[in-house]
Amino acid sequence: MVVKLSVFCGSRYGAKKSYEQVAHAFGWYLGSHHVELVYGGSVSGIMGTISGATLAAGGEVTGIYPEGLFDAELPRVNTTHAIRTSTIDERKKLLIEEPDAFFVFPGGFGTLEEISQAISWMTIGLIEVKPIGIFNMGGFYDPLVEQLQIFVDQGFATDIMPHIHVSDNFEDLVQMLDADRAALDATAAAK
């Protein structure tokens, strides 16, 4: 079962109002289903929307924020747990090491970098394999999912595609992550 979910998302709202609306519903879902949110620590954009809704629903939030790095991106001060880092690399390392699974919300280059690093670290054995949920809202991540499969098909990447789950329904996606986490835990316990 996923207890801690690291969410990779943007510090901007994106071009469509629906991103913010769905982010709010997703945060509320996490909080009301007792899934702890682990995220980049900001009140800005989608990060702020998801974390605020999670807290409003009574959930726990761990914010991991690099001190003094951003002028426009302010840290959330009312998280359940606050971890301050001195670099963005420390922040990413903790975002990858802390959770039971990952959830990728539509975002920008930072979001892409975070998921790329998590996948890379898993395939080279720096961290255990963890379930990844790609929230494919409106087909946002179709090209990325296709490219990931090309990496595997062309022999440039270890096949972790069975642990990469794609859906445009965040509730279904969290359930897929739960099932995969349970299977990974059962396999580890059997060893």
TrEMBL record:
What EC number(s) would the UniProt record show? 3.2.2.n1
MF GO annotations: hydrolase activity, hydrolyzing N-glycosyl compounds
Give the record's keywords alphabetically.
Cytokinin biosynthesis, Hydrolase
One annotated Gene Ontology cellular component of this protein: cytosol
For this protein, the parts annotated as crossing the membrane are none
Mind listing the GO biological process terms from this record? cytokinin biosynthetic process
Q: Which domain of life is it from?
A: Bacteria
Name the top EC class.
Answer: hydrolase
**Gene3D superfamilies associated with the record:** 3.40.50.450
Record-stated family: Belongs to the LOG family.
Kindly provide the name given to this protein in its UniProt entry.
Cytokinin riboside 5'-monophosphate phosphoribohydrolase
Organism of origin:
Lacticaseibacillus pantheris DSM 15945 = JCM 12539 = NBRC 106106
